[in-house]
Task: structure prediction
Amino acid sequence: MFTSIVAKRAFSTATKQKSTKVTVLGAAGGIGQPLSLLLKRNSQVNHLSVYDIVNAPGVAADLSHINTNAVVTGHGPENNGLETALEGSDIVVIPAGIPRKPDMTRDDLFSTNASIVRDLATAIAKHSPKAHVLIISNPVNSTVPIVAEVLKLHGVFDPKRLFGVTSLDVIRASRFVSELKDTDGSKTKITVVGGHSGVTIVPLLSQSSHSFTEDEIKALTHRIQFGGDEVVKAKNGTGSATLSMAFAGAKFANALISAASGKKTVTEPTYVQSPLFADEGIEFFASNVDLGVRVSCFRPNGVEKIHGLGELSPYEESLIAAAIPELRDNIEKGKKFVA
Ligand code: NAD
Ligand code: LMR
Result:
């Protein structure tokens, strides 16, 4: 484990205060590094723990020179590194796993990423069972059910504390709409529901304050559903979205931490165990969710309320109908993998 003497001293001071420990698993990767950088900027994070099977000490040493609150510790797999990295975590973010190449679907990543995520979830169940777990690794539609099943096997599953990170779909949606309508993207609210792959990504453009022609709605919907492919194609075999994903992941983690301050309701989109389509056998679904205020110290209280979808246009109804069968297959595949 990398921890400088100065860091150790700062850490012992930090542990005397209420603290938020955030652990990033896969922290040396394309997403992991910028995500860890953005988390290091959050003054409410007292301990940033970075774990990867390669290069984590270097990433930790580099981050540890930034003069913000968080003490940074780096951990590799040797000497029970994963256990040490996880112990006492309030939030664990998982961007570990391989990214897509052109002509791959997210589901094509399943054969490699399912076991990576399963093994990390097992370690979480044993060493930080109370943590809020944020899944970035694809295919999110299946990796979230995998983590849920592993946590259930260990008797520590709490649906309020498991999140698939779908923030990037909403960030893309607001950016694409703001480009079209010449508005400030950061203030352009677009709801996106469903899952995180192709047709399972369902933007609800009819609920936006903007008006669109039918052609605009079709073009925007397609671009939001396949925005990830734009980046994969442009990166030409070297990976998928990393910087925008780090931005999205940090936004979600920061929202969770900010909810812990209990000042106001924090609402974020996320893929969670949800009652919305339970009648149709869909256990997980992304929608806007209120994140709860703290229950103790800085520990956030996870999912407080799952918002309904509101009124849908006939086109959006047809998008939901197309999303459901794929989502059902993706969820089933994740659950079967653990069973
Ligand atoms: P990357 O290859 O650059 O980084 C992945 C990191 O994971 C590497 O550093 C690797 O060493 C590490 N890793 C592999 N196995 C590990 C293990 N068992 N324990 C800990 N670390 C491990 O990939 P990336 O571009 O950072 O993408 C990571 C994942 O995020 C991919 O599956 C990608 O599809 C997904 N992703 C999701 C979204 C989303 O919106 N949810 C967006 C972009 C990318
Ligand atoms: C994205 O939406 O950018 C990610 O899911 C990565 C990918 O494979 O497209």
In short: The longest helix spans residues 314-338. The pocket of (2S)-2-hydroxybutanedioic acid (ligand 2) is lined by residues 99-100, 106, 138, 168, 228, 231-232, 240-241 (CB under 6 Å).
